[in-house]
Amino acid sequence: MATAETRQKPNILVTGSPGTGKSTLAAALAEKLGFEQIECSKEIREHGLFSEFDERLQTHVFDEDKLLDHIEERMDSEDGGVVVDFHGCDFFPQRWFDIVVVLRCDNTKLFDRMAARGYPPEKIRENIECEIFNTIGDEARESYEEEVILEVPSETIEQMNENVDKVVEMATQWMQHRH
Fold this sequence. Notes:
Helices cover 47% and strands 19% of the residues. It has helices spanning 22-33, 40-47, 64-75, 107-116, 121-132, 135-143, 157-178; strands at 12-16, 36-39, 50-54, 59-62, 82-86, 99-104, 149-153. It is an enzyme of class 2 (transferase).
């Protein structure tokens, strides 16, 4: 079982409300750093890692244990170098991540993004409330050490590019301190 001390490259978690740009940032980081990307929502859909379908929210209710079991081998690798993106963060083992990025977004922009995706009104409302109360940021602070968390705005292409640069710099520094 790998730890921060034994991993060659950092594992990175990108989290935030739906529509904040998690998958986009994770893909850019994976490409720039040469890391593997695990898009949890896609893994859940493609591998049936859910327990039921919530008709009201029009979404699959993922099974935490099935997801964790599904990605555990990749996350516990001595190589590291995995970028995970998901809208939740408090159920992952703390030891899996060396950098945790929390994306934030203005509620109006977030509303527009979710509406454009065709989300039902109830799902939009719940996600906007999560963003207003910074639920995911709070989860991250309760689950990980403050020094590994980077909470950043994700509203524009410029901010996305800045976020890529910041996280690449953090990952580079992490690797330099290991060798």
